[in-house]
Amino acid sequence: MISLDNLTVRFGGVTALDAISAHFTQSISGIIGPNGAGKTTTMNAISGFLDYDGAIAWNDEKIDALNPFKRTRWGLRRSFQKEQIADDLTVLDNLLAITDNLPLSRDEKRAEVEQAIESLAITRLVNRKADSLNAYEKRLTDLGRCIIGKPKIVMLDEPCGGLQQEETDHLGELILKIPTLTQATTLIIDHDVDLISRVCAETLVLDFGKRIAFGETAKVLADPKVKAAYLGVEEVEA
Amino acid sequence: MQITQIMQMTKSAKIGLLFALLAFTFLPVLAGGQWIKIFISTGCFILAASGVAFMYARLGMVSLGQVALMGIGGWVMLRMNHAFDLPFEINLAVAGAVTLVFGWLLAMPALKMRGLYLALITLMAAGGLEVIFSTYRFPNGGEGFWGVMPSVAAPFRRPLVATDDADYLRYIIFAIVVGFLIIELHMRAAPGRAWAMIRRSEAAAYASGVNVVYYKAWAFGLAGFLAGTSGGLLAGGLGLLDPATFRASESIMLFALMVVGGSRGWLGVVIAGVLYRVVPALFNDWTIDADIALVIFGAALLHAIITAPNGLSGQLIDLFGKVGKRT
Ligand SMILES: Nc1ncnc2c1ncn2[C@@H]1O[C@H](COP(=O)(O)OP(=O)(O)OP(=O)(O)O)[C@@H](O)[C@H]1O
Ligand SMILES: [Mg+2]
């Protein structure tokens, strides 16, 4: 379970996140909202990339005191809206770049890397330089980095951004496997509502930094406030 | 699965070793008189350039203080040589270690900075060192801590295996190979991967669990170590050092020529060293004004920035690649 309690982030005078509270109890949950709603900012706060007020915990383990790289070592994994794998490294090295920094023995590290490669069936990519990968293969590598080393929290920021429908479907299948491969609680941001309804049991909806809905995905998507936010005609019904 | 590729040799490494072997065998025989001294100092600058090159290519960090750091290594080397009766290698190790620490000191203000600001900090440090070197000069066997005496210099002890110039040039070529191997081993292990993530973005590094400050400081330390040993080797080559060698402008020049040569492999660094030392000497030989070299370097830098992101070495490799395919 991931708990956000009164999560608040300000950029200068702008309140990008306004006292967001949500307790994600399901193994995979979604965060949706229009552009600029504060979705990525939420993940950046959970990653410790920016200063925030409020509290973040996983299964009652508070992580607020950890700096960003210690959060990764603790068990936080994430991918970025624009993939952030190292172009001049091979796929294997991109995976090792994480296990290098984990408190595991050599054998455990190797086992983690092998398991990630096997679970995603990316053996053929292992020795390819990342700059020779297509968008989908990069996303796969990103996902591999997220499931490695017994993660506790996995966060995917628009994992299917820029992918073909088929690729999105396949990646969705793989994301659904995360709970069987790891103990992690997973959060996904995406604009693809079909993907979110297929993969996420619970969903948080943000708009202008405020929580406008949270709960079972189907119910949330049916909420008039959510529909209004997406159509940009809120206040009309209010 | 091939996690143990750490010892695997790439094609570029094989060609590099072959090149080094040829240079090791023939260069000292073929080069005579003053040229052997020029190649010795070229070798020292190649080793130093490898430090800036890996910082630039692998971390995206611009360091404009490498030649100034060489000066520190050279100073320590001379100081040790004239104060104690220790073997050359121990003095060289001390020179490398002290400069490594200076690399760290330089890193401290720089760690929070990026891009242009980082470059400016290193340049300011180089400027400060320039003032110190020209004020206190280099030890030449005099009294006291600074060890400078006005006229002649006390003798410098070279390594036992390399007392004459020809053998000393071989010694330097060997040192360059060792230096390149140290960098290559880093690249293939955890530090290289951490650096690659840092270069991608700090967010990517944090998301990989990389302690960014620690690995940046490590890079500065390694570059400092390479600068220090190359400065120590230069001291051994010449027997005494001149403050003018380590001016801040020289650090900028070495960096610029590294960009011209290409930062991503051994060939670019070798080209940088040759442009830095051999070309001006050739011009001197042909009684062409040395300033012409500056103009040519400027044009080459523009060429590299505009059309050749991988430098001359990248273009050469592409060219050979094309020729290889045609035949
Ligand atoms: N580092 C920053 N400095 C200042 N403002 C920022 C910063 N990062 C984000 N913002 C602002 O905070 C708000 C929320 O941005 P965020 O990136 O979280 O949106 P998002 O929901 O992820 O949108 P998108 O769907 O476009 O990715 C935006 O108005 C954005 O301009
Ligand atoms: Mg976003």
UniProtKB/TrEMBL annotation, chain A:
Nucleotide-binding as UniProt keyword: yes
Highest taxon in the source lineage: Bacteria
Signal peptide: none
Sorted UniProt keywords: ATP-binding, Nucleotide-binding, Transport
Molecular-function annotations in GO: ATP binding
Domain ABC transporter residues, every copy: 2-233
The name this protein goes by in its record: ABC transporter ATP-binding protein
